[in-house]
Amino acid sequence: AGNTLMGMGTVFLVLIFISLLISCFKFIPQIMDKLSKKSSVVEKPEVVEEISETVTANEEDDSELIAVIAAAIAASEQTSTDSFVVRSIRRR
């Protein structure tokens, strides 16, 4: 009888612990938002000159990048590059 009560008590304690743990999940996004706001306020890079230089460098590389993308699509589709046009490239 004592062994059964000990086992049932352990099971109920673990179930209560799991219930409390699950109920804490609704507070985690709020805490993460507060932490991300603090870290986003701290970071403010001042890189105005370098951006203008990279934009001009990227404009020169775009034609080369378009050619590479067109060649990759043509190779995967087993067609020539005459059947399609690369109109825009979005960088992530």
Automatic annotation (TrEMBL):
* Ranges annotated as spanning the membrane: 6-28
A GO term for molecular function: sodium ion transmembrane transporter activity
Has UniProt tagged this entry with the keyword Transmembrane? Answer: yes
> What are the record keywords, sorted?
Cell membrane, Membrane, Transmembrane, Transmembrane helix
Q: Where in the cell is it found?
A: Cell membrane
- Is the keyword Nucleus assigned to this protein? no
Name of this chain's protein: Sodium ion-translocating decarboxylase
GO biological process assignments: sodium ion export across plasma membrane
Sorted alphabetically, the Gene Ontology cellular component annotations on this record are:
plasma membrane
